[in-house]
Amino acid sequence: MSEQSVNEIDKKESTPSVPLELDAELVLEPIPEQPQDPNKIAIEERLPEEIDLADPELYFNRELSHLQFNARVLEQAMDENHPILNRLMFLCIFSSNMDEFFEIRVAGLKSQLEYSREKNGPDGMHPKKVLGLISEHAHKLVRRQYRILNDIILPKLATENVKFIRRTVWNEKQAAWVKRYFRDNVLPIISPIGLDPAHPFPRLANKTFNFVVELEGRDAFGRENGLAIVPAPSSLPRLVKLPDDVCEGGDNLVFLSSIIHAHADQLFPGMTVKGCFQFRLTRNADLEVDSDDIGVDLAGALRTELQSRHYGSSVRLEIAENCPLHIVDSLLKQFDLEQQDLYRIDGPVNLSRLMAVLELVDRPDLMYPPFSPGLPRKLASSGGLFEAIHQRDYLLMHPFESFSPVIDLLSEAAKDPNVVAIRQTLYRTGSRSPIANALVEAARNGKEVTVVIELRARFDEAENLALASRLQDAGAIVVYGVVRHKTHAKMILIVRREGADLTRYVHLGTGNYHAGNARLYTDYSFMTCDKEIGDDVHRVFQQLTGMSKELKVKKLLHAPFTLRDRLLEMINREAENALRGEPSRIIIKVNSLTEQRLVQSLYKASQAGVKIDLIVRGICTLRPGIKGISSNIRVRSIIGRFLEHTRVYYFYNNRNPQVYLSSADGMDRNLNNRIEVAFPLQDYKQTRRVKKELEYYLTDNTQSWILQSDGSYQLSKPRKGEYRSAQRALLSELADNTR
Description:
Blueprint (H helix, E strand, L loop, with lengths): L26 E2 L33 H13 L9 H31 L12 H33 L2 E3 L7 H15 L6 E2 L14 E8 L10 E5 L7 E3 L9 E5 H7 L9 E12 L14 H9 L7 E7 L4 H10 L7 E4 L11 H4 L16 H5 L3 H7 L2 E5 L5 H12 L3 E8 L7 H11 L3 E6 L7 H14 L2 E3 L6 E2 L3 E8 L2 E9 L11 E8 L2 H15 L11 E3 L3 H17 L5 E6 L5 H13 L2 E6 L16 E6 L4 E2 L3 E4 L6 E5 L5 H5 L1 E7 L3 H15 L5 E4 L5 E3 L10 H9 L5
Parallel strand pairs: 2-7, 9-10, 12-13, 13-14, 15-26, 18-23, 20-21, 21-22
Antiparallel strand pairs: 1-28, 3-5, 4-5, 4-8, 6-7, 8-9, 11-18, 12-16, 16-17, 17-18, 19-26, 20-24, 22-27, 24-25, 25-26, 27-28
Helix pairs in contact: 1-2, 1-3, 2-3, 11-12, 12-13, 15-16, 18-19
Organism: Marinomonas pontica
Family: Belongs to the polyphosphate kinase 1 (PPK1) family.
Pfam families: PP_kinase (PF02503), PP_kinase_C (PF13090), PP_kinase_C_1 (PF17941), PP_kinase_N (PF13089)
């Protein structure tokens, strides 16, 4: 996913609120707190020693914080600094993000209530209360989404000669062409279903595109029911480009929904179509593979579960805003949903499918220009990657620097006769990716290839199963990690014979081994042949592929064993230094921060006087700016052209800075329930470089949203002539440049 900056809109109200009008202030509203006992003193008025750091008032709700991140993504569609097609992309990304939010997070809360497994989070809010607040805020965001689409994005695209032609304005030639398209491409494969005792309501898969049609009259068999369902075939494109000979220039597109709507009467010959209304049902899509029922075949259990993913319990109904109430009520009853689960929309359902515009319209002038990632000169001009890495460690930051050395390292290893073994973890990479191809080639060349594939990478399970089969067919050893702990660490270990010795070459990263993501996500890659790091990675692989007691590692931090506790120790060390009057500083950059012990440790460090900067892209349950508790903590979220994905833990350490890069976020699942690693930077220049790059984010005033103590997010306001963008600075410094 990619994101970027947002224009500030004039302030109209002093109270932050999710903007419903397009000219409202760009402040994302406070996260509601759990109602407090009126006899209880507000946390801001209590003395620090009177405050329990587990008090729910100190924590924001996880799900509502997640919604706020989605809102920040949506606001990118309002930013005129983005090219217009990129603004449309942000609108699509928001739609996709909201789909997953309902499929996983909302579905999870509903399951808690259904099975009486309610569990309050650190914020103390009951799941039923959370669901109500989610509905309230999500409805506001969806209304805003369609306002932005209809009032801003589509008119702006029209001025650029990219037009979405509504069926109400088709000219005679266009209508005739669409009619032929419907006859030749739609009608032969579409299957309308009239509802009666012999035709029960069809079982609709998750997020499929459908119409509910209101009919009048009797059919050939004398049936008279009134309603029919028309599922739109998934094989049909949701956008169709009109040929130039029926248009007056430019790119002209029509929605599949318009095509079906305009010809609904042809689906029911002799009947009167009173109304045709598009709708989409969202279902629970979280896979629940019970580890106690897996037996000896995780892959088989997952394949079985994948078959049912599309038919989980209902969680949301999106439907055309003009659909009559009696039809809406009928659908809600059919899907066992409530009014708060209903979303009336003013436009096509599933806006994420508008991403097809990028393929249908050849207008590079309406998008960000491409760039060439940079590459360190010594890495580019060396006699080979093994020789280069043998001489020094390399740190790369994608997408500003090239991901190709990671692919090339594996490709060299696959061909090098001196390489005897390759081990790698894979989470999301694709069964036909360059990484997969290199591993297949290595296995076929007789290398000992062992791959730890995490099958349970959400929504990539089927792709990972295909990858596992392909690697096994090539002769690689494939294992699936540890049943109760997802393998999220990003590691490559290459064993190479050099003279009489075996040398270990290592790649460690903060992101997935996916070349496409490496152009969209910010991530660090680290390549080394440091002996102790190589030994550590070897031990982690031993634990993943074999069975053993916890193996001690020297330099890496390893979840679920040492990572969380060492992070807490380093935070506490900064607090102790501050109490002794020594300089102290903590900078943490992660995607999400929710782990309660980590949050409490940061609160204690703040109380001790440590200056703490948190760069948290998404969910943050820590509440900054509370006098005596978190007044020394600042939290910002960077939303930009690229998806911020690096995880960095920086500690000043009394003038001897320690920097760890990691695959792990500051979440309970990462630190306690996953296989993760954090790796240290041992070179002073690399440590200084990462600190400098963190400062770019901390001084960003065009793409940064500052979290307030009430839970609202305030967009930074640059002064005229003082515009600073971290991502633009990194592009300028690292990309299109051989250093």
